[in-house]
Amino acid sequence: MIVNECSEREKNCDLPLLANGYCVVGASSIDRAFDSLVLLGNGVTIKGQTVTPYVLKSSELYPLVYAGDAVVPGTPGNVSGQCLPNSLDAKKVRGKIVVCLRGSGLRVAKGLEVKRAGGAAIILGNAVANGNEIPVDAHVLPGTAVSSDDAIAILKYINAARRPSSARTVLGVTPAPVMAAFSSRGPNRVEPNILKPDITAPGLNILAAWSESSSPTKLEDDHRSVKYNLYSGTSMSCPHVSAVAALLKSLHPDWSSSAIRSAMMTTAAVVNTRGAPLTDAAGQAAGPLELGSGHVRPNHASDPGLVYDASYEDYLLFACSSIGVQMDPSFPCPETSPSPSDLNYPSIAISDLNGSVTVRRTVTNVGPGATRYRVTVTEPTGVSVSISPGVLSFKRVGQKKSFSVTLKARGTPGKVYVAGSYTWSDGAHVVRSPIVVSVA
């Protein structure tokens, strides 16, 4: 079974991550944008995004006002610029384009407040924490959303602005994918010796079917009906990975859920369309605690070369060692259980490393019958990694080979998570596993 990595705005985040077959999915962007230009009176053009069907009919210049300068008396200063319900003064807003900032309240509700106060359009500016990640919305009036840097630029110019243009779909946007700011990060709070999330998939501004019984904004005063809508969240990235899992099961009906998860994780991408490392919404490099093994690649997952399989009994042993619970009445926990890190998982996570630790992994050959894999290692900062043996030779499909991974601390400051990876390759297949370590 595959579950989504809950974002902060979602309420169902208490998920049973220890159950057999669960895969945790993070969210990222795709290489598609819905451009809408904001033309300022000084000739500066700012690129926003929107899917609202409404546009300003006139080409004349419209006055531009910052919501924080147009609030009714008594509005708290810390939310004065966020266009919360009944916060705008109609006398100061009517006929103007209103700049609202993200923070408190729903994005689409901010547009509803601008419309209530008689505003002509809304420019929704990202908070600094959201960076360049722009979720698009079907606003109830003309409007567009802009990045935090562009919002700051607009706030420096509050005299006049041309209307936001109608939206157009742009493909091949780079860099892509980018990790979504709302996607939850590791380390795994349930079991820090298992890396979560497992993998990342598209979850920002995803076009999907929409119930016509619900308006695109789901606001009470929005009575529009649409067949499709754009939505963001790990609830959108989860179906992508679920569909890939279903396709893999149809291609390989004898594969277990663990093998399918392994195929997706070990073939995931860690670079974007520019060939540079994947980043977050702020432009900073994203590591395994943000994106898991990487961004899912369905075609590569169909032919992974090697998989890390795990049996029902393996997960029962894992539950015994991790949470000390006997999950199956017919399977009593042994007196000595293996370490949680020894679960045959496609990634390695070591919490509070003190000195050195050795974990074991077993891979199953699902590629060519006769092949030879060599390992390469990218060590986490301050941690040495040795793998034995360094070469795995297979004679047939389905053959299993085991190896050990020894990690040794070399003075990394305590409680700081560092990341690396190890990769098996036979020249045709690349089987990559992330390593995440915190040193005691």
Automatic annotation (TrEMBL):
CDD domains: PA_subtilisin_like. GO terms for biological process: proteolysis. It comes from the Eukaryota. GO terms for molecular function: serine-type endopeptidase activity. Residues 342-437 form the Subtilisin-like protease fibronectin type-III domain. Residues 63-153 form the PA domain. Keywords: Hydrolase, Protease, Serine protease, Signal. Pfam families: fn3_6, PA, Peptidase_S8. Residues 166-276 form the Peptidase S8/S53 domain. PANTHER family: PROPROTEIN CONVERTASE SUBTILISIN/KEXIN (PTHR10795). Belongs to the peptidase S8 family. This is Subtilisin-like protease fibronectin type-III domain-containing protein.
